[in-house]
Amino acid sequence: MNYLVAALDWGLGHTTRILPLIKELCNNHHQVIIGASPGQETIYEEYFPQLSVIALPSISPKLSAGKQQITAICKFLPRFFQGNRRDRLLVKKAIKIYDIHCILSDNRYGFRNKKVYSILVTHQLNVLLPKQLKFFQPLVQFFIRCYINQFNECRVPDNEPPRNLSGILSLPLPKLKCKVVFIGSLSRLQLSECDNKQINYPEILFLISGPETQRSRFEHIILSELKKLPAHNTYLLVRGLPNATGNNMKNSLNHADGQTLKALIINAKYIICRSGYSTIMDLYCLGRTAMLVPTPGQPEQEYLAVYLQSKGLFCTMEQNVFSLPDALYRLENFNRTAVP
User: Fold this and answer.
1) Residues 183-208: pLDDT tens digits?
2) Which one, of 116, 117, 119, lies nearest residue 107 by Cα?
3) What CATH number is attached to the domain comprising 105?
4) C-alpha distances in angstroms, 268 versus 20, 217, 235, 257, 261?
């Protein structure tokens, strides 16, 4: 069969977690055509240089530097609807050109077609809103349900409740007509062999990802906190910028390929990162814990950090009170529970 595959370009998470599904399709001798927004091509070419890639418009938002994201979200909505419309038009053209039999879309609600079997990959059956917008929650859930029901199938990258990593986020909505299938956690690190080179791995690993401007803000906070670090502690900052050129920062990488990242996560003593769901799945599949610092104003990340801390899997600390010495102390004394 000919598959058309694409993922939302909000940070790197959606892009990386769909890689195991693409690999499975290729292993089963299906033809795969990938739709990629600017910034995603580097990831896809790293794993699947032989596959055809078509250009898609970016629908990633630019978040506010402050915790209140309401204005930024409101400005993003017209772009979101426009992006969905352009996705539908591009899919329609691609179906004719490549004779597509099935569509696989990770959180791109417009990446579908009524005439072709369309599968949505998402753990966000329930979308959380900031406290100031909670009164819109029923309306948002209604629209999300409508979007999901336009697909033939919904695959959730998680275990079935109650042993799910995503908590209430993946609980099926009422009146959801689309078939929902839980497929277990997805991690691109499942595709990579561990780099066993005899090198000195850093003691502290920082993983920074997500949309701007909060990605850069968190990076600046970490750089400031590193001044409190004793000279004997080693660290590495993975910046989550796969398309960046040049880097004058000490002890940092713009991007780490799967093999390198897997080795870093396994060998680091302490890990500090965002609480994006794809990062959580990467850590969980390797049996590692971390200090989760959710992106301010992203209710999903804030919820996941608190939820997973209550399950004994991870620690969490808010960005506005982030202290590196405190984070390391808490990680040093944290006992991870084996299962959620």
Assistant:
1) 999 999 988 876 666 567 899 999 99
2) 119
3) 3.40.50.2000
4) 24, 24, 9, 16, 10
Q: At 41, which amino acid appears?
A: E
Going by their DSSP bridges, the two strands 291-292 and 315-316 should be labelled as parallel
Both 257 and 300 in one domain: the answer is: yes
Tokens 């791995």 correspond to 201
* Measured distance CA(163)–CA(59) in Å, rounded: 32
166: which 2 tokens? Answer: 């995503």
Residue 297 within any structural domain of the chain:
yes
Note whether residue 275 is domain-resident. Answer: yes
Dihedral of alpha carbons 184, 168, 321, 319, sign:
positive
Are residues 42 and 60 both part of a single domain? yes
Residue 223: left if φ>0, alpha if ψ -120 to 50, beta else—which one?
alpha
* Angstrom distance (rounded) from CA 99 to CA 83: 23
Query: In this structure, is residue 338 part of a structural domain?
Result: no
Question: What residue type is assigned to position 160 of the chain?
Answer: E
Asked whether residue 339 is assigned to any structural domain, the reply reads no
Q: How many domains does the chain have?
A: 2
pLDDT tens column, 95-116: 999 999 999 999 999 999 999 9
* pTM of the predicted model as reported, rounded to 2 decimal places: 0.87
Whether residue 107 sits in one domain with residue 126: yes
> Where do the DSSP E strands lie in the chain?
2-7, 31-36, 52-55, 102-106, 117-121, 153-156, 179-182, 204-207, 235-238, 252-253, 270-273, 291-292, 315-316
DSSP state string for 41-88: HHHHHHH-TTSEEEE---------SSS--HHHHHHHHHHHHHHHHHHH
Pair (257, 135) in one structural domain? no
* Closest of 35, 37, 32 to residue 58, by C-alpha: 37
Last residue of a domain, one of 130, 162, 190: 190
Q: pLDDT higher for 87 or 38?
A: 87
pLDDT of residue 91: 96
Strand partners, 273: 207, 292
d(CA 202, CA 237): 10
